[in-house]
Amino acid sequence: MEYEKLSTGASIPVLGFGTYQLEKSDVADSIQGAIDAGYRHFDCAHIYGNEVEVGTALKNSGVKREDLFITSKVWNDDQGYDSTLKAFDKTLNDLQLDYLDLYLIHWPNEENFQLTLDTWKALEKIYADGKAKAIGVSNFSIEQLKEVFDMAKVKPMVNQIERHPFKTQIELSKFDTDNDILNEGYSPIGHGHLVLEDETINKIAKAHNKSAAQVVLRWQIDEGFVIFPKSSNIDHVKANIDIFDFELTKDEIKKIDALDQNKHLNYDN
Fold first, then answer.
1. Residues sharing a CB contact under 8 Å with residue 1, sequence separation 6 or more, in sequence order
2. What domains does the chain contain, in order, with CATH numbers?
3. 202 φ/ψ angles, rounded to the nearest 5 degrees
4. Which residues are responsible for catalysis (predicted)?
5. Annotated binding-site ranges for substrate
6. 113-170 pLDDT tens trace
7. What residue spans of the chain are helical by DSSP H?
8. Sequence-separated (6 or more) residues with CB below 8 Å from residue 105
9. pLDDT, tens digit, for every residue of 170-213?
10. How far is residue 4's CA from residue 14's CA, in Å, rounded to a whole number?
């Protein structure tokens, strides 16, 4: 495993396991399979509806708490100071944890951004109380981050954004880096059939004797992103972590960067 550094100095595994759309009935086997394959970083959220099951699976995994990196997020309906604190306590209880390694605002409130700013104040309290070792945001634009900067006592440490070869987010990710915000990328291979059939990516994969998915995940990491592909297929789970025995050349990275279409494959920011 390789690691990036948060602005706090804490290490975060660059490859995690995503729990989005992971069915409750599949959680125990999927989490244990990921643990056995070497994953120690798990990306969760209240809205995923499976935090109770994820918490139980992690507790039963046999891995020490200090060896895990666990993220969760406050959902839109729970934004606001008091409601965020309440939502955080529920997530902590559901996951059966004493603290989170990272807690994020899942989405900015476009209609009432003041509510999002109040939510950030709640995250600052959670951080000050030691209940989350780091705090950050997800799906925030440069303009929204600047609004947070204007009122924050603690700046966001992470911005989790959609990121894949068809949407490289160059400007936003550079802004994050320049402000000591670590970039995390969700949907790291996009919608597989769209990205993984690309001719450029497959040529690079052949040169490294790797799959197209492995090349895209390696590209993400080589460009400083923390990522967490999700799969309930154990073969894919194992293949996704088998990316630390090669690196892409600068030329290969440029060729993948050039695939950018500024194309959302998920919801718009």
1. 13, 14, 15, 38, 40, 244
2. 3-257 (3.20.20.100)
3. -70, -35
4. 48 (proton donor)
5. 106
6. 999 999 999 999 999 999 999 999 999 999 999 999 999 999 999 999 999 999 999 9
7. 24-37, 51-59, 81-95, 113-128, 142-151, 170-178, 192-195, 199-208, 212-222, 234-241, 250-257
8. 73, 74, 79, 116, 119, 120, 123, 136, 137, 138, 140
9. 999 999 999 999 999 999 998 767 889 999 999 999 999 999 99
10. 6
Could you say which DSSP state residue 190 is in? -
Q: Point out the residues that are catalytic.
A: 48
CA–CA dist 221, 16 (Å, integer): 11
CA distance 45 to 19: 8
Crossing angle of helices 234-241 and 212-222, rounded to 10°:
40
Q: What is the dihedral of CA 38, 43, 49, 52, to 10 degrees?
A: 60
pTM (whole model) above 0.90: yes
Q: Which tokens go with 201?
A: 């990516």
